[in-house]
Design goal:
There is one protein chain. The chain is α/β, with parallel strands linked by helices. The chain folds into four domains: about 5-130, no CATH class; about 140-350, 3-Layer(aba) Sandwich (Rossmann fold), CATH 3.40.50.360; about 355-610, Rossmann fold; about 615-675. The chain is about 35% helix and about 20% strand. The longest helix has 20 residues, at about 525-545. The chain is elongated. The two termini are about 45 Å apart.
């Protein structure tokens, strides 16, 4: 960036408006000398609060913007401002902070400032935002994913429709790149306590409100109004914000619909309260925003945010997208960005792999398919945090073993447990862990020329060999070197036959001879323990300084006696109790096949997450998210079809419904083909 400028309006404080001469404008560049002059004349009776009315034309907004720009920059600061602006380019823009200290001036639409035939706040060479002249230090960098909590206040029907459209746009923008963002939705919280609990549970980086807003009765200050489907309406005011929750999000977005004649000061009210409470930035709207514009804003803003762009660039991109809408309503000037820290420090979230590695991941299956993995926000959080909680809390206890099980309420074969496991694996990888995914549903390959064990009824030794062979495959995202299992192979060759455990020849790495285990030879249990010990040593050595997460999918393909016997005692139980300490184990299976193998005495050491069918009440929301992931906004015909299906379906529907329907919905099929995804 070429420069950073601060424009600060100081002067008369209080509830009433002073004379223009009571206010001064201060301009400093890059922390240098501060120039000052009096604020120019502003006719407060010209109707600034109506410039965003539906019947207001561009001329009214342009006149208002010219008045504001002349008052701020038309006096003694004009020459300095012109020099500053003249040195700015699209490639090297100037960042400008407008700090409006007098509360009575904050409600003016400064975003409409018009100079020399241009809207200043929509110029690519200027990144203008509101904020404080003094910036606070950014918090420590945290590993991703970015956590987002969307709070929906359930207002009137048309506003609820807006919320669903905006939510779908956010899902498409944020979740199309799997595991980089975790998004949860809180629908119509019944009370401030319910909202507080949700914030403290997720500890979101971003808190996004879609609610109704209005002036407080008899006071005029703004409030967010929530109308839960059950219970009494309640409101959140600026006074409530400091004690709202123990956790303070870094970015707050307030999309609060309200009357266009509402005189409440949102910029200096609720938005400023969140900033004072510890948020790094707040985005709010100056007036009502139509549903199509809200979708454009959220889609563009969050798409840029998902690319790790600074928040002011995200807002600037959203303004530009709004300005390109066919009807000129000044909607591009509605967003107000208020900051107290540098824009690139608002969300200090990072990922361990480099950006090019992330791009390569999303080109390969099965992770590329995760863009269509919708829903399951609570199960995602539970599974992810069971193995690697992103923050310390009394309720967060890392488990070394996690069981992801599936049970369909409608008798369907698929429940999405494999997709959940893949999403978690990718999440852990982005957090710096070594991940290995093993699919036990396939036919086990021959080891040393011995025939494989078929698709089902695999014994414990076949499972160990499949883990080794798949873990060292180049198809893995993080393949383990083959020589990591050299000592294991050497000891295995001896112990399966009944030989004593001896030190292998380190100068001649051995391969598995593929023999079956001889249960008739002496010390069978001791030899099995030796094989598992050597196997765990190999995993521990492969992990090194990293945490190694090993996922075993389709464990229902294991013989029940082997799963509950040798594999439980030799692999699951030791890992559950931290031996070896760097290894984590994820077991993915049908509920009815895995539960009998688990022991109640170890339940406190094993995390459990179960997935099933989707509730039919979620169908339209999930369908919108699915469409958005494909880059398609569903039209009325598709929505009517889904609505008809929803009305005739039972309480639940199968998780693969959208994939089943894709070939029969032309818009979905076309979008899926364009993305090159499997159907």
């Amino acid at each position: 960036m070429a420069s950073k400028a601060v424009l600060r309006i100081a002067g008369s404080f209080g509830s009433g408006r002073g004379r223009e001469s009571d206010y001064t404008v201060h301009l400093s560049v890059d922390g240098g000398h501060e120039s000052r002059c009096s604020l120019g004349s502003i006719d407060f009776d010209r109707g600034f609060d109506t410039v965003f009315d539906r019947d207001a034309d561009e001329g009214i907004r342009r006149d208002a913007g010219e008045v504001l720009c002349r008052a701020l920059l038309g006096g003694g600061l004009a020459a300095q401002w012109d020099r500053l602006r003249g040195g700015a380019t699209r490639q090297d823009p100037v960042r400008v902070v407008l700090d409006v200290e007098p509360s009575e001036l904050r409600g003016l639409p400064w975003e409409l400032m018009w100079q020399h035939g241009w809207w200043l706040w929509n110029r690519p060479e200027l990144l203008i935002r509101r904020g404080t002249a003094r910036t606070v230090e950014a918090g420590p960098t945290e590993l991703g994913p970015l956590r987002v909590l969307v709070v929906i206040g359930t207002p009137a029907h048309d506003e609820e429709f807006l919320a669903e459209q905006e939510l779908a746009a956010m899902s498409g923008a944020l979740e199309s790149a799997p595991a980089r963002v975790h998004l949860e939705v809180l629908d119509d919280p019944a009370s401030a306590a319910a909202l507080s609990d949700a914030i403290d549970r997720l500890r979101p980086h971003i808190l996004h409100f879609i609610a109704h807003g209005m002036p407080r009765p008899g006071i005029g200050g703004p409030e967010l109004v929530f109308t839960p489907t059950s219970g009494e309406p309640w409101s959140l005011t600026a006074d409530d914000v400091p004690a709202l929750a123990n956790h303070q999000p870094r970015l707050v977005v307030l999309n609060a619909c309200r009357s266009a004649a509402d005189p409440a000061d949102w910029v200096g009210g609720v938005a400023r309260a969140f900033l004072d409470a510890g948020a790094g930035a707040v985005v709010s709207m100056q007036a009502d925003i139509e549903s199509d514009a809200a979708v454009v804003f959220s889609d563009t803003f969050y798409a840029r945010l998902a690319e790790s762009s600074p928040v002011d660039m995200c807002v600037a991109a959203a303004r530009a997208a709004l300005a390109r809408m066919p009807v000129r309503t000044g909607v591009w000037a509605l967003p107000v960005l208020l900051t107290c820290c540098e824009p690139d420090a608002v969300l200090p979230v990072a990922f361990r792999p480099a950006a090019d590695v992330l791009r390569d991941i999303l080109r390969s299956r099965p992770y590329a398919e995760l863009r269509r993995f919708v829903g399951r926000s609570e199960e995602r959080r539970q599974a992810w945090w069971a193995v690697d909680a992103p923050h310390a809390s009394p309720a967060a206890m890392d488990r070394s073993v996690l069981v992801i099980s599936g049970h369909s309420q409608t008798g369907h074969h698929r429940t999405g447990k494999t997709w959940l496991a893949h999403w978690c694996l990718l999440t852990w990888f982005l957090r710096g862990h070594h991940i290995v995914s093993v699919d036990l549903a396939g036919r086990s390959g021959p080891a040393g020329g011995r025939p494989g064990g078929g698709v089902r009824n695999k014994d414990w030794l076949t499972v160990l060999r499949m883990i080794r062979d798949q873990a060292t495959s180049p198809d893995q995202l993080c393949p383990i070197p083959k020589d990591a299992f050299a000592k294991f192979n050497a000891e295995l060759n001896q112990l399966v036959l009944g030989s004593a455990r001896t030190a292998p020849n380190e100068h001649r790495p051995e391969v598995d001879e593929g023999r079956g285990f001889n249960d008739e030879a002496a010390r069978a249990d001791e030899r099995k323990a030796g094989i598992f010990s050597a196997f765990l040593d190999a995993l521990s050595g492969a992990a090194g300084a990293q945490r190694l997460v090993l996922a075993l999918d389709h464990t229902e393909c294991i013989m029940p006696d082997s799963l509950a016997g040798e594999l439980y005692e030799g692999l699951i139980q030791p890992v559950a109790y931290g031996k070896p300490p760097a290894v984590r184990l994820v077991i993915v299976a049908r509920e009815e096949s895995v539960s009998p193998a688990l022991r109640e005495s170890d339940a406190h050491m094993i995390g459990r997450v179960q997935v099933g069918d989707f509730r039919t009440s979620e169908l339209i929301r999930l369908a919108r998210a699915y469409s958005s992931r494909l880059g398609y906004v569903p039209d009325e015909k598709v929505l009517n079809f889904l609505q008809s299906y929803q009305e005739t379906a039972g309480e639940f529907f199968a998780v693969d419904l959208f994939h089943t329907l894709t070939p029969h919905v032309p818009q979905w099929l076309e979008a899926a083909n364009a993305l090159g995804v499997r159907r």
